[in-house]
Predict the 3D structure of the following.
Amino acid sequence: MTPAIAQLLSRPVLEAAPGLLGMRLTTVVDGEPTSLRLTEVEAYGGADDPASHAHRGRTGRNAPMFADPGTVYVYRSYGIHWCVNIVTGSVGEPQAVLLRAGEPVEGLALMQTRRGRNDHVADGPGKLTQALGIDASDNGTILGEGRISLLEGDPPAEVVASPRIGISRATSRRWRFSIAP
DNA sequence: TTCTTGATTTCCT
DNA sequence: GGAAATCAAGAAA
């Protein structure tokens, strides 16, 4: 993790989230690298965000959200999928950015094999983790120290803010950031 | 201890 | 457009 990225992740989540767009997310699983360009993320806060896992305080599942910025938080969604977040802000103030989608950059064939199909490889939270081979063993690891790394990429031409998806609380907050097509 | 719900995806009609 | 798959946190009792 470069100093520039470390500094970005130490900022409040609403500033860090859009800054992640366009960056390259890379994983190395069993010596096989795969990477993609982030195109869609969502910001999640702490006690003041009713939609966040951390809004009722620290629990066993959300503990990584309270750790250092740059920590990876992986959790199981609907009993089937994995969703991956990057912790931002300061220690003790739970904030994280949900990585929702990306465009394959490297290792496309491997991602297609993992996904079992050649289209819609990483255009959703659960799909992104499956394509990159992310699972529970990555939970709590630090970017660049485990299997997951974040590198600077092409800055997006235009960032769009819109309401978050798939939640039932605080839906009016426009904390979803994506790159305009 | 039991019940409900979810930061989802995929397949079927 | 609708439903199933499937597990764990959180709420209720």
Remarks:
- The mean pLDDT of chain A is 95.
